[in-house]
Design a protein that fits this description.
Elements: E1 12-16, H1 27-36, E2 40-42, H2 59-71, E3 77-80, H3 91-96, H4 98-102, E4 108-111, H5 116-126, E5 130-132, H6 153-159, E6 162-168, H7 171-175, E7 179-187, H8 188-193, E8 206-211, H9 217-229, E9 237-240, H10 250-266, E10 271-273, E11 286-288, E12 291-296, E13 309-312
Parallel strand pairs: 1-2, 1-3, 3-4, 4-5, 7-8, 8-9, 9-10
Antiparallel strand pairs: 5-11, 6-10, 6-13, 7-12, 12-13
Helix pairs in contact: 9-10
Domain LD-carboxypeptidase C-terminal: 180-294
Protein name: LD-carboxypeptidase
Family: Belongs to the peptidase S66 family.
Length: 313
């Protein structure tokens, strides 16, 4: 396992794309947003030669580009430009370079959605930490689609995060004094794609983070049945994020929550709900590959019992 770097400012950021094609005309606007926040931006690895599937390049070329960026000693943070599809295809290539990557200091990546596949490799195979947070191009629209401020990577990595409005979905979550484990996961579709394969991670002593979009409540129910049927998913707990659309009505919010609650009632581990991360207007950052602790307020004072739990990293 790599030894985490210390006293890193996390200001030298390379934008990178390993999934679906992007609009290059918008890149200067994105760079401007990052530079206004004090980041030094490198676009050397933001390349594309659009493939037949609409990815930024062939699998081999995308993998080579990513590995070169990970091995580049001048870069502290790799911030993924956008998600989409195709990152899962890179896992075989990354595994071929596992020993070389284990020999270098940890490098932080930032992104979500399709980037989940890359997080999984770095967290579970290299022991690196990473940030589940907004992709770079999310900051093109800071008024409707995305209301999440640009994360301060230095603040997150040095001081962690804490959220006090995490909802326990079953009795096990409500009654547990605290639950801890290494946080892993991300997009449910990408995590589920590894189930039963050689790339399925060992979930022992892990807390699993899951979110998705474009999934009907019936499809979500099927996804959750798969979790119930898995032979090996020995997690300490599960935290669900947003599954409904970006602009949901009350009925939609209630329906998706009801599906999650039905699963939680059948699951034999603590289950929590925090719909403030994922494909929504707010995508609160988490540190994947790092310890997370969840606990609920046990004080008897009725005014101090909010019904929520805290999450701390």
């Amino acid at each position: 396992m790599n030894i985490p770097t210390t006293n890193t400012p996390y200001k030298n950021v390379a934008l990178i794309a390993c999934s679906t094609q992007f609009d290059p005309s918008q890149v200067p606007q994105v760079v401007n947003v990052f530079e206004r926040h004090g980041y030094h931006i490198n676009c050397h690895y933001l390349q594309q030669n659009i493939s037949d599937f609409g990815y930024v390049d062939t699998d081999q070329a995308r993998a080579n580009n990513l590995i070169k960026a990970l091995l580049d000693p001048t870069i502290e943070v790799l911030w993924f430009y956008r998600g989409g599809g195709g990152a899962l295809n890179l896992l075989p290539y990354l595994h071929r370079y596992k020993q070389q990557l284990l020999a270098i200091p940890e490098k932080i990546i930032v992104g979500f959605s399709d980037v989940t596949a890359i997080h999984s490799f770095l967290n579970n195979e290299l022991g690196w930490r990473s940030i589940h947070g907004v992709n770079a191009n999310n900051h093109l629209d800071m008024s409707t689609v995305n209301l999440q401020p640009l994360p301060d990577i230095s603040e997150i990595m040095n001081n962690g995060v804490i959220y006090n409005n995490v909802l326990p979905l079953n009795t096990l979550a409500q009654q547990a004094p605290s639950i801890s484990g290494t946080l892993v996961g991300g997009n449910h579709t990408l995590v589920g794609a590894t189930f039963g394969t050689k790339y399925q991670p060992d979930f022992t002593d892990k807390v699993l983070l899951l979110e998705d979009i474009g999934v009907t409540f019936r499809q979500l129910d099927r996804y959750l049945q798969q979790l119930l049927f898995l032979n090996e998913c020995n997690v300490n707990a599960i935290i669900f994020g947003q599954y409904y659309s970006i602009d949901p009505n009350d009925e939609e919010r209630i329906m998706y929550k009801a599906v999650l609650q039905q699963f939680a009632a059948q699951y034999d581990k603590p289950v929590y709900y925090f719909p403030f991360f994922g494909h929504g207007k707010y995508n609160q950052p988490f540190i994947l590959g790092d310890t997370v602790t969840l606990g609920c307020n046990k004080e008897q004072n009725i005014f101090s019992d909010t019904g929520y739990c805290y999450l701390q990293q």
